[in-house]
Amino acid sequence: RCVAIIDDKVDKLYGEPLKLYFDTHNIKLWKLVFPGNEVDKDISAVEKMLVELKKIKVSRDQPILVMGGGVISDIAGFAAALYHRNTPYVMLCTSIVSGIDAGPSPRTCCDGFGFKNLYGSYHPPVLTLTDRSFFRTLHHGWIRHGIAEIVKMAVVKDEELFNLLEQVSSTLVWTKFGTEIDDLSGDKETFENVCDLIIGKALEGYVRSEYGNLWETHQCRPHAYGHTWSPGYELPAGMLHGHAVATGMGFGAYLSFCNDWITKQELYRILNLLSGLELSLWHPVMCDNMKIYKAQEKMIEKRGGNLAAPIPKGIGNCGYLNHLPFELLQKRLREYKEICQEFPRKGLGIEA
């Protein structure tokens, strides 16, 4: 048999084809369907999964199939880590976030006490499957939101990936990563190959960063770019994760410029890429300087007493910012807001 934990929205789209696949191979499919929204990413959801796994007597050597996006990847992976202390699972990714970030990640988690990813365990999947054909059923807002995690890896790990993103920009969004290309002018096969290369390079950069520091023995983690201040306002502002991360990336790039780590030209390349993808550079919640500072204090606590904020040190390379006192944070936020006013929508994202 196959026991599958599936996102409820994914089940509506792919539940029947999945059952048909296993029926064809004479394998019984047990589906455990759970919601996969950010508000569902808490310990109670993990507990419910554990109860269901016990009810149907999943054994410790029986790999679970996890199918869905980033939230399901995080909480189902965490449930697998807790169940029998180490139950294997296969991750079948249906979103960009799970496909290149949460899916292959060894870090499984859920939120708690106002902290993002407070509870968790290191428990990588035995296999991660990323197939962009699943992206066809995502609406454009979710495509845009997912691309933020690819931009993240490009800015701090891979200049070639950054150049590819600049080359195709918003075409990635409206073609849904080359899955809807009937209206695309030019060589469709070449564009699809670029889409595959972008996903492959983003995955490679993420896995190299993540698995090189598997147990988080240090906090110099380039893939946390954009994730230092945004966790403090993402949920209160009702933002999609990718848009919140994009604001953090934009602000982080400006801090790099202020530290002479990137040139003005490089700063604007980063901001133009984010804006061209219609991601958020700014959100009104960022006017609450104290909220941002409290988010920073929480992050220092989480990272063992250091801010360790990854920001670009040249495109394709990463440096770490450790000190940003409140007065300077206020000043930099004011300056950054002024810069964002120059961009379309005054730096606001689409469907943020």
TrEMBL record:
Q: Highest taxon of the source? A: Eukaryota
Q: Which Pfam families match?
A: DHQ_synthase, DHQS_C
Cofactors: NAD(+)
Quick check: keyword NAD in the entry?
Answer: yes
Which ranges does the record mark as transmembrane? 64-83
Q: Which InterPro entries match?
A: Dehydroquinate_synthase, DHQS/DOIS_N, DHQS_C, EEVS-like
**Membrane is among the record's keywords:** yes
Q: Which residues form the 3-dehydroquinate synthase C-terminal domain?
A: 146-292
Gene Ontology BP annotations: antibiotic biosynthetic process
The Swiss-Prot or TrEMBL record annotates one GO molecular function as: metal ion binding
Gene3D superfamilies (alphabetical): 3.40.50.1970, Dehydroquinate synthase-like - alpha domain
Q: Which CDD domains match?
A: EEVS
Q: Where is the 3-dehydroquinate synthase N-terminal domain?
A: 33-140
Alphabetical UniProt keywords: Lyase, Membrane, Metal-binding, NAD, Nucleotide-binding, Transmembrane, Transmembrane helix
Q: Give the protein's recorded name.
A: 3-dehydroquinate synthase
User: What is the organism of origin for this protein?
Assistant: Nematostella vectensis
The organism's lineage is: Eukaryota, Metazoa, Cnidaria, Anthozoa, Hexacorallia
